[in-house]
Amino acid sequence: MGLARTHAVTLTGVEGHLVTVEAQGADGLPATVMTGLADKACKQAPDRVRPALANCGMPIPPARWTINLSPAGVPKTGSGLDLGIAVAMMAAQDHVPAAAVRGPAHIGEIGLAGEVRTVPGVLPMVVAAAADGVREVLVAADAAREAALVAGVTVHPVRHLGEVQEFYKARAAGVTYLLPPPPEVPARTVRRLDLSDVVGQATARAALEICAAGGHHLLLVGPPGAGKTMLAERLPGILPPLTEEQALAVTAIHSVLGVLPGGGELVTHPPFVAPHHSASTAAVIGGGSRAIHPGAVSRAHHGVLFLDEAPEFRRDVLDALRQPLESGEVVIARADRHVRLPARFQLILAANPCPCGSPGARCVCPPFRRRGYLSRLSGPLLDRVDLKLSVSAVTRADLTLPRGEPSEVVATRVLEARERQRERWTGTPYLLNSQVPGAVLRRGPWQLPAADRQPLDRAMDRGTLTLRGMDRALRVAWTIADLQALDRPRRAQVQLALDLRTPAEAKVA
């Protein structure tokens, strides 16, 4: 028995941290001491590792074992450190050469028979290991494809602790030991909902195109069956595919949540997340009593968050959306740490005009109930929504109209508009009009002439538009101009942006 050292990785939110695992066996009363802020699941690792090693023909004799997880100030959570702890104990007991295990990192949970199981969050763990200079990673075979998404890291898939022993013994002897490749997983067929399925709703379709082109937020108010949910579900189909950087970020979040598609493939299309209206603040925003888990807003990162029946959500859940809508991230504070979770998404809110949802004269709700129902959407939240639309019920005449444009055609215009924005904001940290601060659009070379800006100035003078609302209307006007291939918005585009902001707002007020 002696001292052995290797590497593992732990997660804080969606960020990984490289952990140095040290195992020391010494004479004394049989006991296992683990240091380094390990949570309950992590502290139970020796109880899983000992019988697993014994069942694999690598017994650990009774002794006083000390397992140190460094840096000690970083909380260690989950069972993903099992494999690193097992390898360190194997090396300390001379079951594998201690010098061979110092470089690679190990990620996986250990079963009592010695099998290596995958854990959530493999991708961000491997990213963190690579950032700290690790060039080889041993992971469960089921997670090998996911781990291989990280460039510059050699991934060794392992199924059993016996394979780990053979791998390190062969390496010490200078022999190449080829681990069995992971099984091939057939590619998924993703079905995209098409915008041509929506009957009528020409104004709502145009608003959806504007939202897709500029990354804006949208509120739809209308009776049941008007097509609000259909419109929202088709927004991802007209958004451009994710860039490589965005795809890795989205895939990492899905990996941490354990919702990554089978086979660990890269998420290349914007996600669509629609939590139920009974969801808690922790489920929507993120949180947890011990480990911090991302919420629905993080799962919708670089995608769409759809809140159907938005007034039915709890008021504190809705108001908690205000921070991520402004900053693009969620900051969760605990006594011992602050965790930042990415949350840059497009918000789509849908609401009935009243609790009963019956259109027109069939509504039985008294006026005070109608006002109280929509007033659950607070003013500060609505002020952060760019487009607010009243959606009418579909009529029989709408069924005789020709089908609308398919998503493919609309997506082409959206991509062209985004390309104009990319060229305009080259050299700045902004990619879309919705990300540009209002001060940039109100001053300097991007300031509109007073004659074109007049509708917004009048609305501010009347008190019907806040400064934040003016900035958001300006962003929408620039997006409309990009869709129309104009060099800048004119009065008509500014007026349209203001009109798209106010119709539903009057009802909510």
Question: What layout of secondary structure does this protein have?
Answer:
Blueprint: E1 3-12, E2 15-26, E3 31-35, H1 40-43, H2 45-55, E4 64-70, H3 82-92, E5 105-107, E6 109-110, E7 116-117, H4 122-131, E8 136-140, H5 144-147, E9 154-158, H6 161-172, H7 202-214, E10 218-221, H8 228-233, H9 244-257, E11 272-273, H10 281-285, E12 286-287, E13 293-294, H11 296-299, E14 304-307, H12 315-319, H13 322-327, E15 329-333, E16 338-342, E17 346-351, H14 367-374, H15 379-382, E18 387-390, H16 407-424, H17 438-442, H18 450-462, H19 467-483, H20 491-501, H21 503-508
Helix pairs in contact: 2-3, 7-16, 7-19, 18-20, 19-20
The averaged pLDDT comes out at 91
**DSSP strand content:** 15-25%
* Strand order in the sheet with the most strands: 3-4-2-1-5-8-9
Helix content class: 25-40%
Calculate the terminal CA-CA distance, rounded to whole Å.
74 Å
Task: Give the helix/strand class.
Answer: alpha/beta
Walkthrough of the structure:
The protein has 21 helices and 18 strands. Helix 18 packs parallel to helix 20. A hairpin with a 5-residue loop joins strand 12 and strand 13. It is α/β, with parallel strands linked by helices and 509 residues long.
